[in-house]
Structure formats: structure tokens, C-alpha cells
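hey so u asked for the seq, here:
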Amino acid sequence: MTIEPPAPGEPRRPQGPRDPGDAWVVTPDGQRYWGRFGAAGLLAVDPARGVLLQHRVGWSHFGGTWALPGGALHEGEAPLVGAIRESQEEAGVPDGAVVPRFTHVYDAGVWQYTTVVADVADPFEPVISDPESLELAWVPVAEVDALPLHPGFAAAWPSLRALLDVRPIVLVDAANVVGSVPDGWWRDREGAAVRLRDRIAALAIEGVAAEVLKLPEVRWFPSFAMVVEGQARGVADADGVRVFSADGSGDDEIVRRARAMVASGLLTTVVTSDRELRGRLEEVDASVVGTRWLLDQLA
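ran it, C-alpha cells below
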């Protein structure tokens, strides 16, 4: 492959490259990909309005088509970070307005494009904030195929669309997980629960490999919740982790929460090594994994 900087005066970067990543990757057969370090885009999903798409200006690569707000990654920039940055630069997506759900990667060998699929947590109106857009629009999912799509997005869209209704959640039996590691937790059960919560909160940000959840694509960012009981009751929620306090039996609370999650359409995985509880959870159609599954993710 070769790296080709934008031509002088090229409309894409009229003032010249803003970053070393602003360059073309050209393969031996002449295929051109924008972004020396790869590229990323955001597929924002709003249940009421559809997905946010960008109508690309005529002079851009595959101009006139519809695709995602996105662009070249900076050197050393994580695709998740780059997708959010580019969507803010091109569509005015506000800070904290979207929550990542999963990532899809197109790999051309010498170049990758990462699509970050994210749920809208705080509804917003997109704003054209750079010269690469003719318009920005919320497009109902059923109407996307009717648009002239960028070839890359058109190829990825069937896989992305098939997963838009998949919403994984991980429910943690906190007492069982804490009790599986003999680190003195019995001296401060509440403190042990807080430490577990904080480790799960960090995992919520990092996400987990798709195969860990037995799902397609590359990486998922499931919702996390945990049930605490006894002396640990009253532990507060943290960013990315909902905490439920059991008034009575922790097992009963876990089953009740899992049943409600499954009924609401969530792909529910419960973390516990309690055999009796596992049987009760399987009766409500929740998937069950042992404590080692979570500890391996937290390592």
C-alpha cells in the first residue's frame, strides 16, 4: 500500500491536513481508503426516530450517497473515541448523548473502518458543522434501504440492522461473586460490594469481546446490574451499573429482576455459581454463567 496526502486545495481539507491521519491509503489494485490510521463512524440509534445518517457532499468520496458521520482516526486514537469525536465535528452530537452498544469492523487488510453502534440516551437534533454534509437526517430503519447508500455502509447495513433489537444486560449475584474470592470480604461486606461495583463500572466502559457474550461482531457494551443483600444493602448505583438491594432473599431478588429483564426483551445473562439459583434462572429463560466468567473479564 501507499499513503497519499490530500491534493493541494482539495475541498476535503481546504486548509491542508489537520492531523497526520488525514491521508489516503492506496492499495496496489488502486482502492483508496480515507484515513492513514483507519477510520470510524457513529450509527446513532433513536427508537423514536431511527438512525442518524449523513448525506455526503458531491466532492467527497462517493459523494451524493448516504452514510454515517465519521472520518479518519488520529494516530493512536481508539476507534470508539474517534467515532464520537468525528460525529461531534460533523453532526454536533452532544457530549453524553449516546451510549455505545457494539462495534462492527470492516477489515480491508491494510485498513479498517469501525462502526460504533450507539443508543441515544439524550435526544438531540444534529447540526451540520463542517463542509462534508449536504444534510443530516434521522431516517426510520425501514427506509434506509431506499436511499442511495455509500457502498461500504450498504455492505454493512444488513448485519447492523439485524442486531438493532439485540440489547444485552449482565446481572451479577454480588454476594456470590464477592464470596468466591477469599480476600477478607467478610470483614466489610459493604466495602467489598462497592469495590466489585466499581470494577464492573470500569468494565462497562471498556466493553467485552463479542464471543464472550456469544454474539456476532467485535465488541459489545452491555448494560450491567448487580443485586446486593444483607450488610451490603444500600450500595448506590455507579455510572454504568445499576444496583438493586434485596429486602429479603438475594436469590429471590435476582430471579425477580431476571424475569423482568427477559420479559422486556433484554438478552439477559446472570453471573452466579449457585447451582440451585441457576436452575431457577433457566426456568425464566435467562442465560447463566459462573463467577469465573466475570472475574476473567475484570482481570
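Residues 8 and 148 are 29 Å apart (CA to CA). Helices lie at 79-91, 151-162, 174-179, 189-206, 250-263, 275-283, 291-298.
lmk if thats what u needed
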